[in-house]
Automatic annotation (TrEMBL):
Family as reported in the entry's similarity comment: Belongs to the short-chain dehydrogenases/reductases (SDR) family.
Protein name as annotated: Sugar dehydrogenase
EC numbers for this chain: 1.1.1.47
Organism superkingdom: Bacteria
GO molecular function ontology, one term from the record: glucose 1-dehydrogenase [NAD(P)+] activity
The protein's enzyme class: oxidoreductase
Gene3D superfamilies (UniProt xref): NAD(P)-binding Rossmann-like Domain
Keyword Oxidoreductase on entry: yes
Key words of the record: Oxidoreductase
Database matches in PROSITE patterns: ADH_SHORT
Residue ranges of every copy of the Ketoreductase domain listed in the record: 7-187
Pfam families in UniProt: adh_short_C2
């Protein structure tokens, strides 16, 4: 039997939005894709079928990225299933209802930091263990999905979420240097106002339409536009890029 030499990618939070668009584009570009999600099994399964229809392999893994044991199990599953990991997209992330600082509780802040920051750290750690040349790996590429909020701070809306994205950017920078000699590139994207269901979780489903006129490009972005940048950063075309960030925010 011929050995499948297609690269393997893990996209966290791939059941909808930017993660879903990224998983689909990676499949179109010849990657086998591990679809991670935490709750929405029906949507994740529908994506797996779409990827299958493209003639590509997928692996569905339900795992909360903030749960260390679940993360280790997910990476082990990929290893057992395909025996390699070439690309990681740390896309899963949450925000909560818009609030000023006076409405923030320790529980809420910790939950956001736990998923957005600790979850990203854990996935990076497990990926590096498998990709690093010193461990016999073949190198690889990681893209962390940050946010324009890391630079704006999201006053009056999402201070805690913005701070979590700032932490992700710092991780991207430091880790990129730490693993550059291991054949691993680590980059970040900072989307701005993208049409996804995340804004409804913040309590304002039409947030992008409210804000779009204030953007230099005067429109919101589509998940596919973010996916294209992520997939480029993962590709060999970006072979000399590490520790860098692409702003995908319509000029903001
Ligand atoms: P979304 O539509 O809310 O999708 C989030 C995805 O993450 C879902 O697939 C969800 O899966 C998954 N997820 C949530 N918590 C998880 C956990 N603990 N473990 C594993 N998966 C989890 O979000 P999006 O708008 O596509 O955003 C994707 C990324 O882009 C996020 O990191 C977000 O911060 C960033 N971003 C988005 C925008 C924007 O305007 N949309 C702007 C800047 C940055 P389940 O439903 O199965 O839990």
């Amino acid at each position: 039997m011929a050995v499948n030499s297609s690269p393997v990618a893990l996209v966290t939070g791939a059941s909808r939005g930017i993660g879903r668009a990224t998983a689909l584009l990676l499949a179109k570009r010849g990657y086998r894709v591990c679809i991670n999600y935490s709750q929405n099994h029906v949507a994740a399964q529908a994506l797996a079928l779409e990827i299958e229809a493209l003639g590509q392999e997928s692996l569905l893994v339900c795992a909360n990225i903030a749960d260390e044991i679940a993360v280790c199990n997910m990476f082990n599953q990929i290893e057992h299933h395909w025996g390699r990991l070439d690309a990681l997209v740390n896309n899963a992330g949450i925000l909560q209802t818009q609030s000023t600082i006076e409405g923030l509780t320790a529980e809420r802040i910790n939950q956001i930091l736990h998923i957005n920051v600790t979850g990203t750290f854990l996935c990076c750690r497990e990926a590096v263990k498998r990709m690093a040349k010193r461990h016999g790996g073949r190198g690889g590429a990681i893209v962390n999905v940050s946010s324009a909020a890391a630079k704006s701070g999201s006053p009056f809306e999402y201070l805690d979420y913005a701070a979590s994205k700032g932490a992700m950017d710092t991780l991207t920078k430091g880790l990129s240097i730490e693993v550059a000699g291991e054949g691993i590139r680590v980059n970040g994207v900072r989307p701005g106002f993208i049409y996804t269901e995340m804004h409804a979780d913040g309590g304002e489903a039409n947030r992008v339409d409210r804000i779009k006129a204030s953007l230099p490009m005067q429109r919101g972005g589509e998940p596919e536009e973010v996916a294209a940048a992520i997939v480029w950063l993962l590709s060999d075309e970006a072979s000399y890029s590490t520790g860098s960030f692409l702003d995908l925010a319509g000029g903001k």
